[in-house]
Amino acid sequence: MSPQQRVNITVAHCDTPSSSYSSPIDRRISTLARHLLGEPSPAMANSDSISASPTSAANSIFAHVVRAPEDPILGVTVAYNKDPSPVKLNCGVGAYRTEDGKPLVLNVVRRAEQKLVNDMSRNKEYLPIVGLADFNKSSAKLIFGADSPVIQENRVTTVQCLSGTGSLRVGGEFLAKHYHQRTIYLPQPTWGNHPKVFTMAGLSIKPYRYYLPATRGLDFQGLLEDLGSAPSGAIVLLHACAHNPTGVDPSPQQWEQIRQLIRSKSLLPFFDSAYQGFASGSLDEDAQAVRMFAADGGELFVGQSYAKNMGLYAERVGALSIVCKTADVASKVESQLKLVIRPMYSSPPIHGASIVATILNDRDLYNDWTIELKGMADRIIRMRQQLFDALRARGTPGDWSHIIKQIGMFTFTGLNPEQVSFMTKEYHIYLTSDGRISMAGLNSKTVPHLADAIHAAVTRVV
């Protein structure tokens, strides 16, 4: 008997109503036979036709979605990567580069990672919602100072977040839910992601004057007037140091006036601290504005990032600290922060936070970190001086002293969008249209090329 005959016999034996099957085995044999013969199942046979899936390529439910524009900052790098020119220069990248133009992994980070790898007691269990306890405690001490009253009196709650951006978002959502004011004042200009982060968190955005183009410095009078007219209780975003994108910071005396105004108006300060130690080279000096506000007994928010000062960009390591009037209030605030974090990302990742905690809690690693950190800050300061000297040597029209007066990773050059476009087209130099350049992306070999481009742009493009 051939295989086909055996199949036919099987089908004949099983081709009876399903209710008359003598056992589950018969039903399985029938299904197998139909599969071998390529016959449709009863359910398929009763279907007149099969309609095209509503999610098929020709009929996408997302066909109406339009292509979003590139992020204005990240888009600079996208355009740079597409340029085949051997002399191209990326002045938009918000990350530190070595004198050779390469990304840097700090030696203390490598040592801390090796220490973690060698610790066989470590596991990959979930962290608590608020993150790694050692990381949180150390982060609070780093920004406020170990002897700060807010720490000694347990008036601060600190939670681990997804870098600085995540810290701002968690803080924003907490404020939108629990604070009586939903308006946050942002300096004009500010980091391009600030308006998006706080708007998505549920807050309303209003600007306050900060940068004065005529002097390429701080519009201090405008700042005081705008914050002075803000409604009582409004939230005010402040850059702790190395203002992004301008590189313009208030002096200690100006910070004190800002503090007095904010406290007299019962405004709520929210510090974004992305560059502690990376601006001046001193961790304490770069934290002075935050500590000034913490010392007066008032409440405040601080978002911290370890992307720049430890080079942990991709590890997404940050912290949100909220200073409260009492330890009891701080405890209650933390309980509500958990309810913000839990449905957002449940709990933060462990690796980056462990690196930070290891460095901050090991005396040798910490001391070596401060040395490496100052080395990065000093190299950026040298690049400022070299660019200023190169422009002066070329006789470039204008006063370029703001380049050495500003601080931190970025310089607000004062170049207009047309001049920026000219530099990109003619010199293959990429930067944001507002004229912001990253000093950390320069080195001694590329400064002359940039100076040539700036000189040409200023003299040839009005």
UniProtKB/TrEMBL annotation:
SUPFAM superfamilies membership: PLP-dependent transferases
E.C. numbers: 2.6.1.1
GO molecular function, one term: pyridoxal phosphate binding
Domain Aminotransferase class I/classII large: 88-454
Pfam family membership, one: Aminotran_1_2
PROSITE patterns in the record: AA_TRANSFER_CLASS_1
Catalytic reaction list: L-aspartate + 2-oxoglutarate = oxaloacetate + L-glutamate
Essential cofactor(s): pyridoxal 5'-phosphate
Protein function: Important for the metabolism of amino acids and Krebs-cycle related organic acids. In plants, it is involved in nitrogen metabolism and in aspects of carbon and energy metabolism.
Note: In eukaryotes there are cytoplasmic, mitochondrial and chloroplastic isozymes.
Record's protein name: Aspartate aminotransferase
